[in-house]
Amino acid sequence: MRKLSYLIATSIDGFIGSADGDGEFFTKYVDDAYLEWMFAEFPETLPTHVRRHFGIDDRPNRRYDATIMGRGTYAVGLPQGVTSPYGHLKQYVVSRSLQEVPPEVELVAGDLVAEVRELKRQDGLDIWLCGGADVAAQLVDEIDELVIKTYPCFLGSGMPLAAAGFEIREFALDSVTSFKSGIVVTTYTRKR
Predict the structure, then answer these.
(1) What percent of the chain has pLDDT over 90?
(2) Are strands 145-151 and 184-190 parallel, antiparallel or unpaired?
(3) First and final CA of the chain: distance in angstroms?
(4) pLDDT tens digits, 17-73
(5) C-alpha distance from residue 70 to each of 85, 94, 96, 132 (Å)
(6) Which domains does the chain have, with CATH numbers?
(7) Which of 28, 43, 79, 159: disulfide with 59, CB 3.0–4.6 Å?
(8) For residue 111, how many other CB atoms are within 10 A of its CB?
(9) pLDDT, tens digit, 9 for 90 and up, residues 156-181
């Protein structure tokens, strides 16, 4: 069975962006060592146009062949004309307000949990939950793996990692990878 993996960038205090969802400031901490690691470990999590820019667009998907993102996450690239940000993956956008998306993107406006459970039963690589906080909250009990990229900054407020209600959900630590830039990538598996 496929896993749902929430791979996300966050501040030390658990925010994935400003209150309006902007997370562009995280890029200032990215160095060559971190990029090379991401290219090797998670090449499919880089948008298609970024993969082309770095010359890694021919690298095969290692872990994921599908991504789920909220409308806010999807909308980030729209002003630049990026309507299929992860064209190398099967893309699902969760939204009740969007009326149409390009053919290579599937709109999920109904029961998100049921959709994810069906995707998990299908053959393939794992499913990447790309963001954001509201979608993560809806899927919190379906998340099988957390890959938390913690950046060395403290924001104080903003968009949380997940806007889920309080409940203890236990995970086991799998790995920790740190970089001189201060970025720490921690991977956890859901205890079931």
Answers:
(1) 86
(2) antiparallel
(3) 14
(4) 888 878 888 999 999 999 999 999 999 999 999 999 999 999 999 999 999 999 999
(5) 13, 5, 10, 6
(6) 4-184 (3.40.430.10)
(7) 43
(8) 11
(9) 999 999 888 888 999 999 999 999 99
Using the Cα atoms of residue 63, residue 181, residue 172 and residue 161 in order, give the sign of their dihedral. Answer: negative
Q: What mean pLDDT is reported for the chain?
A: 94
Q: Which two structure tokens, joined as six digits, stand for 63?
A: 């872990």
pLDDT for 6: 98
The whole-angstrom distance between residue 133's C-alpha and the CA centroid of its chain comes to 10
- 6 DSSP β-pair partners: 129, 146
Place of tokens 């896993």: 3
HSE-CB at 97 with a 13 A cutoff on CA atoms is 5
Residue closest to 104 by CA, chosen among 126, 124, 82 = 82
**Residue 40, both tokens:** 């090797």
Residue 150, helix vs strand vs coil: strand
Instruction: Quote the tokens at residue 158.
Output: 């903003």
Residues 6+ apart with CB under 8 A from 13: 154, 155, 156
Q: Considering only CA atoms, which of 33, 59, 26 is closest in space to residue 44? A: 59
Q: List Cβ neighbours of 123 (8 Å cut-off, separation of 6 or more).
A: 2
